[in-house]
Amino acid sequence: MSWQGDDTMEHDGDTESDVSIPLGEGVSGRGSVSDGEDIFYVPERRPSLDLENGQGPMETTERVHLERTESYSSCYSTDSEDCEHRTRKSRCAAPKAEGPAVVPLSRPELAKNPDEKRHPALTVEFTFKAIRKTLERLGQDDLRMFKITLWKRYPESFSAPPQGMDMVDLVDKLLECYDLEVALQLTKALLKDMDLKRLADYLTDLCKKNEVRYELRQTLLRKYGSMCEGFTKQGEHKAFDTIFNDLYITDGGNAGPNIQHEFRKINKLSTNRKKEKMITSRQIFDLDVINEKHVRSIVTNGIAGVGKSVVVQKFILDWAEEREHKHIYFLFPLPFKELNLMLGQKISLIEIVHTLYPETKVLPTFECDEGRVMFVCDGLDEYANPLDFHRTETWCDSTEPADMHVLVTNLIRGNLLPSSLLWITSRPLTSSRLPPEAVHQVLEVRGFTDEQKEWYFRKRFEDQAQADKVIAQLTSCKTLHIMCHLPTFCWVVCGLFQRTFQEKGPDAELPKGLTLMYTHLLLGHLHVRGARGSPPRTPDEERDFLVKLGKVAFTMLEKNQMVIGKATWKDSEVDVAEAVTKSGLCIEFLIEQFVMYQERIQSFIHPTIQEYLAALYVFLTWRSTGKNVLEQPLKSKLSHMFKESGLLVIHRSAIERSLQSPEGNLDIFLRFLLGMTLKANQELLQRFLPNKNICPSFSEETASIIKKKIKENHYPDRSTNLQGCLDELGFGEVPSHSRSNSMKNN
């Protein structure tokens, strides 16, 4: 029967034109075919060798071991490695030698090793896509030959020749009959026998990349699956999804500082900001945006503590858990603080990835046509090397070693792996130095909206009653509620309130003071400055920096201004980069002075930060030198004559100046100055105090002065802030009749 089949095929090839079956047409759709018209070799169906225990040939998937029939490819000669051109061999050209019959060669064994554990990345879905993607690269003739060879080699898998099957049915049939490993092994074996080694290697490469991608995802899940809130990044880590992580992100990154304030009227800054468009982290590097707007690189700005790293972490986890961003095949986070550890050595971009993610070492390159490669570089402002886009040499080879600044510069330029995607996060001062042609989209993280603030606290306080109490406290104090747009400030507030519940019970009254919260925030910023690689400073140097910056804040506050001019910086002797980039207490942004002209300016990250630093300046100056910067020289002599305590004199001076300020620009400053002297706050600031001594607060005497002012009611529009001052000192509300008189006058 085998001889007859070969003879029939030879006869058809010599006398009749080859009739191909359209791809996708079923076997039953070919119509009746006479014996003389059948061009396909139909071998006698033979059972599998594994027929013990009554198993049929289609019931075993563990082992396929059949005798090898004559290979279809042996009837053809090839002119190239991939057999794109084939010539039918003539049987007359090489007549068979007479002699005994030749025993057919056995087929290579296709078997699954029972001791070999299947890689978790090898799934039915992947195997189907990989085999289909490989076979789709075959030309029509090669695909037809593949089907014929498959039918001749493994007839037990088919009830009829597979020539009429479309691609989906063909791959489905392979996976139905064989284990995943065997199906891949079989496909590669047939391709190699057809002299299509490159295509077989392509399938092997797909499997290898799939395994690396799986292991990379597992690494990222371990590394980014949890987080520790706050500044220290030490202590209890929580699962990322248990922490509220939805943030306010806008398309267009020049919003400037948040200028919301409880009392001050601050003119809106001309930041040349486009109309805001709120987006989610899922929309970052959205496939439609990439294709329609040709976006390759995105820069995301945000002030210190606003949540840039949280947005990055959420994006990475969404990819690692296969929830979003499926068009990205490889995602490599390259934080700048980790790149700093490789400074001073020649290294290639590929070696950087291999160092941070060892599972990728089996891949010589990351470029692939299965999806995009993406690099996420968080914290450009932490990078220790200056970037020079004008003098740095061009570098295009990702496998050749170079200095780190050369690699970073050319990655941003788009010279290294130009088809890859790049996402950079930074504080505004540093990102504004990037060349415009290298930045295709600018986003800004702006913290929490009012609605998100409430969601955050409800997730942090599992007890519903406690959550309601906390939210009521926030909404009752406008300054506190505004400042909670910063996630780090929310974390500070949560810590203080949780400690109150733990120490005093669930029915405890929550603290109403602001100063302690802002002091925690300040110390957090100073801690981050040291953790970001800045040179360490002694407590005296730290105090000197705070006094100088506080003096700038106080000078601008007296003028009711937020924008810090160049002359002010020069007179203060404060380094702009130290204030903006390293400490994160100030922000730089662009304003439009004239048409087609923009100017870089700086301000404090929020008006209340300015007011706190101004109060800190007054307090530290008095503690260090005994000088009252609020009092005129003549009044200072009078206070010495009455032998009134210096701190009480400062409080009295601040109260008077606040009440006489028509625009209310010293109201919150007064609250901070009074709260600065409380013991709990002085303990936090102790390292900045001379000899670390804590002085008396004179809170009772100061409270008496404030209560007297409220009763006199000469300043009815300031009664709310005066009551806030009492809250800051830890005293209750004024008697109800005084409050009612104040409200009546208001």
Sum up the structure in keywords.
746 residues, alpha/beta, Death Domain, Fas, Rossmann fold, 4 domains, seven-stranded mixed sheet, three-stranded antiparallel sheet, 28 helices, 45% helix, 9% strand, disordered N terminus, disordered C terminus
Q: At the first level of CATH, what is the class of the largest domain?
A: Mainly Alpha
Count of helix runs: 28
Name given to the CATH architecture of the largest domain: Orthogonal Bundle
Which percent range describes the beta-strand content? Answer: 5-15%
Q: What is the name of the CATH topology of the largest domain?
A: Death Domain, Fas
How many discrete structural domains?
A: 4
Q: Which stretches are low in confidence, meaning pLDDT under 50 for 5 or more residues running?
A: 1-106, 736-746
The spatial strand order of the largest sheet comes to 8-7-13-9-12-11-10
Mean pLDDT: 80
Specify the overall morphology: elongated
Please describe the biggest sheet, giving its number of strands, its sense, and whether it closes into a barrel: 7 strands, mixed
Helix vs. strand class: alpha/beta
Rg: 37 Å
- First-residue to last-residue Cα separation: 110 Å
Relative helix content: 40-55%
Number of DSSP strand runs? 16
* CATH superfamily label of the largest domain: Death Domain, Fas
